[in-house]
Amino acid sequence: MPPTAALTHYAILTAMLAPAFFLTATAALLASANARLARIIDRARQLLKDLGEVEDPEDRKLLEDRILVQRRRSVLILRASQMLYVAISCFVATSLLVAGDSYFDHVFGPWPTIMAVLGVLSMFASSVLLSREAALAVRAVNDEMDDAHRHANRRSPLI
Fold first, then answer.
1. Residue 67: which residues within 8 A CB-CB, separation 6 or more?
2. Closest Cα to residue 63, out of 76, 54, 75, 72?
3. Is residue 38 exposed (0-12), middle (13-18) or buried (19+ Cβ within 10 Å)?
């Protein structure tokens, strides 16, 4: 292999490292989002089971509100996951375009950069969605603690 060819291969591999790092970060966020979705599903199933066992209208309303929050959380996680899959696709496309651009005499023009920017924007959008979901989760836990406290005080007489 001539020295210039070796340098070209090295340059290609080096240029493909940034998308690879982004792929790793995106995969970690996707694994986190999937774990969060599993917890949301488990919680929603428990709430639905509890709803079937409750007759008090006030308690039913609380459970229905909690189920609604879980539905909102699941939609946010779904959208975030979709954006992460878009990011993965963009980063893979970036790597392929960088390699192809080097071999085919720069015919792809700005497309490697455009795909990288789209991937980063998709990661950013998913991060915002994941942040909103986390805020909903914390609010739901706080609301459940407050409701449990009120419910416990409603049953026990004050001395």
1. 44, 47, 48, 51
2. 54
3. exposed
SS3 assignment, position 57: helix
User: What are the pLDDT tens digits along the chain (159 aa)?
Assistant: 555 666 567 677 777 778 888 999 999 999 999 999 999 999 999 999 999 999 999 999 999 999 999 999 999 999 999 999 999 999 999 989 988 887 888 899 999 999 999 999 999 999 999 999 999 999 999 999 998 898 888 766 655
- In order, the DSSP letters of 89-104 are HHHHHHHHHHHHHHHT
Single pTM value for the model: 0.84
